[in-house]
Known about the structure:
Strand content: 15-25%
Low-confidence stretches: none
CATH architecture: 3-Layer(aba) Sandwich
Radius of gyration: 16 Å
CATH topology: Rossmann fold
Structural class: alpha/beta
Shape: globular
Distance between the termini: 17 Å
Number of helices: 7
Largest sheet: 7 strands, mixed
CATH superfamily: LmbE-like
Amino acid sequence: MNVLVFSPHPDDDVLGCGGSIIKHAQMNHQVTVVYLTSGEAGNIRYSKAELAGIREDEARQASLLLGTSDVIFLRYEDGYLTYNKDTLIPVVNLIRLKQPDIVYVPHKNDGHKDHIATNEIVLEAIERAKSAFLQDITGKPWLVRDVLCYEVWTPLQNITYVEDISQQMQKKLQAVAVHQSQIENRDYHEAIAGLNRYRGVMTRKGKYCECFKIIKKGR
């Protein structure tokens, strides 16, 4: 199985679906993580160029802990991510190249503009990737079977899928801890541990759970 995870910034993938990524890797699924930005606006202690390098290194190290080394950085501008031709076409081409069975993406109401833009770009790219009648697109048409929307900043209100990550939670938190440039200013590891524990209690699916909204199933 091929899995494609779209992350607005380095660390969103770990926070939103890191436990699920670990489970995919444990099942020997091919997982690719695509970072739309390098998160260069995420800490004012560094210049943007310096922080981009730091955060890309953190992402690579965290991905190894999750069980994948296939990471791609599109390097769109952090904080200004926008749906347009220049951001859309490379994502369409990536979907056709990687031919994922499952795509992970932030949900459309997640409380960060880059997350909302990522959702819009990726969902449109999925639609265009299956069409045989488009110019400017490379590769053969590809139909994505399942799309799962994950939560980071804003918890989902309508949940359609729950993944028990109790056995993966410790490693997920280790991967979160790799993103030192971020957790030095905000306790993301505490926040996500609380959210995943809450999801486990309220869904009764496990001690720690990740929740998703399935918004599309390929036909």
